[in-house]
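Q: I'm writing a short explainer about Secreted protein for a general audience and would like to include a description of its predicted shape. Could you first generate the structure from this sequence?
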Amino acid sequence: MKKTPLAAALLLSSLSPIEVNAENLDLYVDKNTRQIYSEPGPDRVKLGTFKQVEDKVQLPPPPPAPAPATVASPQPKTPSDKKWFEKLSLRGYTQIRLDEPLSGDSQELRAPGDRFIGDNQSLGIRRARVVLSGDVSDHVSIYLQPDFASTPSGSSTGNFAQLRDIYADLYFDKDREYRVRVGQSKVPYGWENMQSSQNRLTLDRADALNSAVRDERDLGAFFYYTPKAVGERYRHLIRDGLKGSGDYGMFGLGVYNGQGANRAEGNDSFHTVAHATYPFEFANGQIVELGVDAYTGYFKIGTGSITVDGSSFTPATDARQHGFKDQRVAAHFIVYPQPFGLQGEWTVGRGPELDIDAQEVRVRSLSGGYLQAMYKLDTKEHGVFFPYIKGQTYDGASKFDTNAPKMKVDEVEAGIEWQIRPELELVAAYAHMERTNVGSAPYNVVDGDLLRFQLQINY
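A: Of course. Here's the predicted structure. Afterward I'll give you a sentence or two in plain language.
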């Protein structure tokens, strides 16, 4: 029989423990039965001497149990992964206005900034605006704002949809310090004109500054430069509810048609505007802004028949093809309410104005402005309160009204804004007004007192 390690191993596994534990083992095989023995005997043939060898075989560890199957959660998209339409945002606000006459000739009062002042008035929708804005790319952003509470001139029906803003900002650098704004947008003249009515504390803008640009907007192109640090300061003023005006550049320069928003150009001459302002920040965190604005151009007025003392006439305009010289300069300062605030603007200039005695429209000087004090009171339980008082004056023309009548304004308004929640604001104010009714001849000055309310819903 052939001796092999395998045969020996099989044999060892069949022996008793005593036999297996022997150091050397002689094995014999019976020639007849072929059985194997550990001792010699008749008909047994010695196979050989064997030594037990123990091999420790280590089996590999069992494979780890497979982890339970999981569904991978979608990773949020980075700005660069988003489609341009995914970067757009939608927001807006609505204002409900009520003006209640108190005394004097308040039923006869008329104000360009609030069509709900006067007789036969009740609740009205002052604003109903929706803003769609966002980045198309790293170098282009868009802004679209319609108003659903407009009333065309001479119409007794309100709440028409009308375009307010539609423009694109074209950026030249990655930090967005340099840009050109093209389209219909606010003309950078007058700080309060730039401030959104959603953020403005008082119910209306001051007439001296607001009479410069109809609806504060026009179609044009404006270059703005805002250093990165200054831009962050403007965002801070809006974000912290300090009644900021937004970012219209530390410096701005542009051209625009000059006839006002949603009006066709009246001549072949652009208006030119320049704007410079800077928000200084002091060591205690107080921000104070100072700036100047100026514009020049030619404005074409509309004329119509006037009846004064029983005599009717249409004012002469010297058949001026390009319109009348229209020039103004303004200065502003704002001590932001932290918590006390002070704000003021003043403008001087010249422009078209009706001379009733001469029965013609001439270029005449104008001036006016306002001063406003305010206080920001934060409470945890009841929201934010903004008491304020504002006085304004203006002696100049209302160039957007037919015949550009002379406008006299002396007004004081005191009130309080209550920011009940971020989405809900209520304003209550008392106003004493002395102002010209520029809507119809003979353009009388009316004196009266009003109690005014406005509810604003932000969304």
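A: For your explainer, you could say: The chain has five helices and 22 strands.
Q: Perfect, that's easy to follow.
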